[in-house]
Amino acid sequence: MKVHSPPNIGETLQSVWDSGFVTEGEYSDRFEKEFADYIGNPNTVLTNACTNSLVLAGRLIGLREGDEVISTAMTCMATNGPFHNTGAKLVFADIDPETGNIDPESVKQKITERTKAIVLVHWGGQPCDLDEILAIAKEHNVKVVEDAAHALRSTYKGVRIGNHGDFVCFSFQAVKHLTTADGGALVCKSEEDAIRARKLRWFGLDRKFKCSSRWDQDIPEYGFKFHMNNTNAVVGLEQMKYIDGLIDSHIENAAFLRKNISNPHVKVTKSKADRVSASWLFSVLVEDKEHFRNYLADNGIASDQAHVNNLRYSVFKEYQDESLTNLKYFDKRLMNIPCGWWLSEGDLNHITQVVNNYEGL
Ligand SMILES: Cc1ncc(COP(=O)(O)O)c(C=O)c1O
Predict the structure, then answer these.
(1) Going from the N-terminus, what domains does the chain have, and what CATH number goes with each?
(2) pLDDT 10s digits, 12-21
(3) Over the stretch 242-253, which tens digit does the pLDDT of each residue have?
(4) Crossing angle for the helix pair 9-19 and 230-240, nearest 10 degrees?
(5) Pocket of ligand 1, candidates 72, 76, 154: which has the most ligand atoms within 8 Å of its Cβ, to mutate?
(6) Alpha carbon of 233 to ligand 1 centroid (Å)
């Protein structure tokens, strides 16, 4: 994984710091508008992390003790921690072993009268089965939260991720497609939720409040300090100039690997025809991943699992569920090989050749 560094980053940051307005302001407003246009949804609220966008989603849904949230354990800790902290009970659904994404059939089986939300993750950028999940949510009147940390510019049936569920959370963390060092966005289905989220990200105060003083306004609902600042936002604006080229490279590299990797010991995760993955990860399943990982390292190729089954963490011991067999299968075999914007044609040929020559244990 590499951090994309736009060429003018030093100058741009200097100008923000010289202006004295280093926190929320002109640049964070501009970046919010540009990002909203890019996603195609004006109800976009920038934050300081995807994790905190997920916290805001939990607050907007009104989760509390006694509620249930159906989620996937095959993800970053950041997906589930915010919901666990609301006091609601997490109920883990199984995943599709071909993609790593939450399985709608398993979600259906886990729904109860207490279910308030379904949380899904577009693993590696590959969109989940959104039609099926949204239909279940509609039938049971529950909210859908999408963790789209890997899925910037992914599309589902021709529509960009950010225009389906009730809340869609993006990450601008260091090694994501678009990085501001740290940062994130919460994209809401309803304008009302976006207006409330804009207040909640800054203690509960409206930054645009027009009065003799901003301090004259009441705080009817206390929020958080989750806003994006000008320092990160100006980096985001610079990154936006390159983002399509970077994502194109991820998609083209993944297509190359998909076409050319052929080895019975290395199972490439499935790509579905009605959706485009932004290919943040290129996930494969192997029988002995440590052996595979060492073999790749010996050939100069870095690989990583990225995230592990969250049920490995003792903080989630109350949620253990032996029936999640696909989750265990996937977690045991998962390895991600490089597919990012930094790879040259030579790198791609080398990776393909090394993977194709892998002989297993
Ligand atoms: C799936 C997923 N969700 C959430 C996060 C957390 O993002 P952030 O660091 O922006 O809070 C990550 C970061 O790696 C992630 O991969």
Answers:
(1) 9-240 (3.40.640.10), 243-356 (3.90.1150.10)
(2) 999 999 999 9
(3) 999 999 999 999
(4) 150
(5) 76
(6) 18
